[in-house]
Design a protein that fits this description.
With 245 residues, the chain is α/β, with parallel strands linked by helices. The protein has two domains: 201 residues, Alpha-Beta Barrel (TIM Barrel); 37 residues, no CATH class. It contains seven helices and ten strands. Strands 1, 2, 3, 4, 5, 6, 7, 8, 9 and 10 form a ten-stranded mixed beta sheet that branches. Helix 4 links the parallel strand 7 and strand 8. The N and C termini lie far apart (38 Å).
């Protein structure tokens, strides 16, 4: 018997320099939005060693690694990858990142490939993120372009909010039809393409502005902090003028 589960596959906690919510706050937001689970995909770090259940919402281990071909998600990890080793010479190699994530049991996803309109289309991943609720801020056509890439490469499509705060959770997610909400079942369904990405709404620009300011604040660099404040006001203005379409 198959059951329907909704998972936000791209979520950042406070472990990310620009993340603003705890895992408990993220889980509470997910429950309020009718989600069954989240994958915590912090920047170059793993927030979880194993799955955790918070208020009826599963939190699954993952990460988002910066590579020479853009960002790569590792979902449903059995163990944490050695990210320090990947980054010992600077930006991680995409091929080495994919190989290590697979060794750790993870499903690999090319995250928001067209955010800056210069996507690498040959990254050896398992899936393509075709629905991301933040990516329109940089490139309004990014999700459509990613969907075309997934089709051209015959790869499964995923969706996630790319939330950096609880208020963004569930703006995009992925629907699974699986027997149970376990990592083995979800992993198998994802690799088989038995899932569907859903966009509920684009994230307001100002929320990205707040997370960028958090990152700037922790640098303790006055120039970056002032720039972060300016970016917040610029984002609010764009939200007013353009909306989030």
């Amino acid at each position: 018997m198959l059951n329907t589960f909704k998972l936000d596959l791209h979520v950042h906690s406070r472990l990310s320099d620009d993340g603003r919510s705890s895992k408990e706050e993220l889980a509470k937001a997910a429950a309020a939005r009718g989600l069954d689970a989240l994958v915590l995909t912090d920047h170059n770090a793993c927030a979880l060693e194993s799955s955790e259940l918070h208020g009826g919402v599963w939190l699954f281990p993952g990460c988002e690694i910066s590579t020479d071909a853009g960002h790569i998600l590792g979902l449903f990890l059995d163990k944490a990858p050695d990210i320090a080793a990947l980054r010992k010479n600077g930006l991680a190699s995409a091929a080495e990142t994919v190989a290590m994530l697979r060794e750790c049991g993870g499903v690999t996803v090319q995250a928001h490939p067209f955010e800056r309109k210069d996507a690498r289309t040959d990254v050896p991943v398992d899936c393509i993120e075709t629905v991301n609720s933040r990516v329109y801020i940089q490139n309004p056509e990014a999700n459509a372009q990613a969907a075309k890439l997934a089709i051209s490469r015959n790869l499964p499509a995923t969706g996630g909010s790319d939330a950096h705060s609880a208020g963004e959770v569930g703006n995009a997610y992925t629907v699974f039809e699986v027997p149970d909400c376990s990592m083995p079942a979800l992993r198998e369904a994802l690799l088989s393409g038995l899932c569907k990405p859903i966009l509920i709404q684009n994230t307001p620009r100002r929320l990205k502005g707040y997370s960028q300011f958090r990152y700037a604040w922790f640098t303790r660099n006055p120039y970056r902090i002032i720039k972060g404040i300016a970016y917040i006001f610029y984002s609010i203005l764009l939200d007013i003028v353009k909306g989030t379409k």
